[in-house]
Specification:
With 473 residues, the protein is α/β, with parallel strands linked by helices. It is 27% helix and 23% strand. Strands 1-2-3-4-5-6 form a 6-stranded mixed beta sheet, with helices on one face.
């Protein structure tokens, strides 16, 4: 048996390939939408991808099941409770698929979503004939994470309450997963950084025994207590989550078909689209964006949590035009496609170099040092400091007198920001403040500055900081 985990850090997403050398057959579980790596790995090991499974209809990315169907002829498998507009093989509880020495067994584990399944992986060559009491691993999808469990509140828009799904999740964990042996390996679909839970570990696998001992959500408690602890303090889910969950249930163009429509365009073409409402997305590093950028463009750099913030800040009603470092245009479009943002009209040929002869179209964002920011805030006419971090981050520490508007709620709270005073935006390190500053400039705010390096640089400079009502130096 060949077993391989693929991990995509920018989405904190884990996918899996399980292969049998004797028959040359492979299955892929929870693939990302760009599928080259699975095909390359299979080819390298003389395997053919014949099966593709989704543990559930993912909310935070568009999966690559249709891509593998089109490219490899793979059969698509979903939980029996799933509804989809494309043909698939429904998997009921206990149903198995054998190929060579590999057995995959479905467990219906609803809770994170109604159709969630987990997949037990058996190496039949390493266990007594017919013995399926000791699986090698469980691919737990978003039902069980390392250190956490899947949140049950992401299907409200589709008619499922957190209480309903939370009750199902409790039952799935206790009657299905906790019944597995302690040495069974646990391989989830997400790790730290995913918004599908609140306390995911940086580890990408564990054992069931270790999770039984250390996972807060698996400790002995009533179903009512479980519902309370699991639903409390969950991070805000971006608006695109429901959209992606629906897209994963639909027939749709493949990523290759989508990317084939993304072509270079001239500056004049870009400006014409911008005039009628196109979203100009600059994917360069925040420092480069601050130095010079096209007026009205939005900065979401490829070096940070790109997918989360694209899905939060941009909409699906207006086309997107990309400005990128030359050579990174396709990467930008691909990463948009990973979350189903296929409405890319093209990219600016030669990136910002196209604006060399049109300097009047460029603006900059001043990024000031923490000591200078402190001087500005102590001046007779100080700027308004805007903290765009999360409430939890702010509770730990913040700049005295700053206005708290988390980045994911900035656009709906613009009226709270004065337009007659300069602004000083900060976050933890400078990535989110660049997004916020670009949005403020796009919406007509003048005199927008950022604190370079965010609150980290403020602390490094040993400047006063507040936590609660206590001032620290």
């Amino acid at each position: 048996m060949i077993f391989r985990q693929f991990y995509l850090p920018c989405l904190a997403h884990a996918s899996y390939l399980i292969g049998d050398e004797a028959t040359g057959t492979a299955a892929v579980v929870d693939p990302q939408r760009d599928t080259d790596q699975y095909i390359a790995f299979a080819t390298e090991h003389s395997l053919k991808i014949k099966h593709v499974f989704l543990t559930h209809l993912h909310a935070d990315f568009v999966a690559g099941h249709l891509e593998l169907r089109e490219r490899e002829g793979a059969t698509v498998y979903l939980g029996a409770a799933a509804k989809a507009t494309y043909p698939f093989t429904p998997l009921h509880d206990g149903q198995t698929l054998d190929f060579g020495r590999v057995r995959l067994k479905a467990l219906e584990t609803p809770g994170h979503t109604p159709e969630s399944i987990s997949i037990l992986v058996y190496d039949l060559g390493a266990s007594p004939a017919g013995d399926d009491s000791h699986p090698y691993a469980v691919l737990s999808g978003d039902t069980l994470f390392i250190g956490d469990v899947g949140r049950p509140d992401l299907r409200a828009a589709l008619g499922w309450s957190a209480a309903e799904l939370g009750g199902l999740l409790f039952d799935s964990l206790h009657t299905k997963l906790l019944a597995l042996p302690d040495d069974c390996l646990v391989y989830p679909a997400h790790g730290a950084g995913s918004l599908c839970g609140k306390a995911l570990s940086k580890e990408t696998f564990s054992t069931l025994g270790e999770q039984r001992r250390t996972n807060y959500a698996l400790q002995p408690m009533t179903k009512e207590a479980f519902l309370q602890v699991v639903t409390a303090d969950q991070p805000d889910a971006p608006a695109y989550f429901t959209y992606d969950a629906v897209r994963n249930s639909e027939e749709r163009p493949t990523l290759d078909e989508t990317l084939a429509r993304v072509n270079p365009m001239t500056l004049d073409d870009l400006l014409a689209l911008q005039e009628v409402g196109a979203q100009i997305l600059d994917t360069r590093d925040p420092a480069e964006f601050a130095a010079a950028h096209l007026a009205g463009s939005i900065n979401i750099g490829l070096g940070g949590q790109f997918a989360t913030w694209v899905g939060t800040v941009l909409d699906r009603d207006h086309p997107i035009v990309i400005i990128a470092d030359p050579g990174r245009e396709n990467e930008s479009a691909t990463r948009l496609g990973r979350i189903g943002f296929d409405h890319v009209a093209g990219y600016l040929r030669d990136g910002l170099h196209s604006l060399k002869s049109r300097q009047e179209l460029t603006v900059s964002t001043e990024r000031v040092s923490a000591p200078f920011a402190s001087e500005l805030l102590s001046s007779p006419q100080p700027p308004v400091a805007i903290d765009v971090r999360t409430p939890r981050e702010r509770e730990q520490k913040h700049l005295a007198g700053s206005l708290s508007i988390p980045l994911n709620h900035l656009l709906e709270n613009l009226e709270k920001i004065p337009k007659d005073r300069p602004l000083l935006v900060y976050c933890a390190g400078g990535y989110r403040s660049s997004i916020a500053a670009s949005l403020l400039q796009r919406n007509g705010f003048q005199g927008v500055r950022e604190i370079a390096g965010g609150i980290v640089s403020w602390e490094t400079a040993n400047l006063p900081i507040q936590t609660g009502q206590i001032s620290l130096h």
